[in-house]
Amino acid sequence: MKIDLTDTTASKVNKALVQGRRAIGTPAVGMVLTLVIVTDEENAYDALKAANDASREHPSRTLLVVKRVSRSPRDRTTSRLDAEVRVGADAGSGETVVLRLYGEVVDHADSVVLPLLLPDAPVVVWWPVNAPLDPAKDPLGALAQRRVTDTYAAEQPVRELAARADAYTPGDTDLSWTRITPWRSMLAAALDQVTCEVDAVEVEGEEFNPSCELLAMWLADRLDVPVKRSLSSGPGLTAVRMRTSTGPITLDRADGSLATLSIQGQPDRAVALKRRETAELMAEELRRLDPDDTYASALRYGVERLTASAARDASAPVSALALEPAKRETPAESSDRATPALMPPVKKAATK
């Protein structure tokens, strides 16, 4: 069921939501969170489709905020809110409200969204494109417990990571980090199978791919060994090679779907590592709404090392620079800020 509202208010949108639920025979609200999507008209359809697919796992009220840029000076001074309310089969497993903002109201989107948030439920804000440099200080981002960006959509993804590190606030995350979850799980499981010392790592993937950079940062942060970043034609991440005291460990994915895990002394194994759709990535992010401390640690550590490497070798591409281990803090120095990781860290096993 769809209800169109032109030149409306947030109060009328709320009444339309109640009217729509009664019309389809579900007056109760059974949603677990509010998902706010901030995008432009060009990317609105794809973002809303991904959110609807993710809502089958996480029933939510989805508020799609489309900021329309007026071309004429006269239209810029005319504030208007148009809304489209969707309930039932047209809204996945929750409710959807498409909000189109015109004129001065574009700068006050938070005042439109605030009355439409579900009471006593978490709020997640997602920017599929054109995310602010500091999501937590954005008026809409300030309403949320979790803020999701996608560095892959930026013009300079690797440079964008530096801005994310500088402005990081607990609750920030990025879909480029979510894309490497299967890789991190597989590499951690591979190291659990052998007793060895890791000496060096090589991460191979597309140039200027933020997921490749984040995986290299995570490995450098957790293993405290040099991590070389090499380039390939893709798609995305193609291989991770670890040099250990018992022989090489390689996770190679040349076709973007099926990978081969090779461990010295063991038969090669085929591993499913397909490139996931945006809906799957969002469904994973919505499973846990607490701060991702592992992401924060890898991002800050890796960006610091990248910046230092770039200063030493200004002629090399940033995405091809090696991450060298930094001087570690002593336990006494780091005890005040130590936080538990969402995923068990990859550790170097002691040599027998």
UniProtKB/TrEMBL annotation:
Region named Disordered: 322-352
Pfam short name (any one): OpcA_G6PD_assem
Glucose-6-phosphate dehydrogenase assembly protein OpcA C-terminal domain ranges (all copies): 170-299
Compositional bias segments (type: Basic and acidic residues): 325-336
Cross-referenced InterPro entries: G6PDH_assembly_OpcA, OpcA_G6PD_C, OpcA_G6PD_N
Residue ranges annotated for the Glucose-6-phosphate dehydrogenase assembly protein OpcA N-terminal domain, each copy included: 51-165
Name assigned to this protein: Glucose-6-phosphate dehydrogenase assembly protein OpcA
UniProt source species: Streptomyces lacrimifluminis
Source lineage: Bacteria, Bacillati, Actinomycetota, Actinomycetes, Kitasatosporales
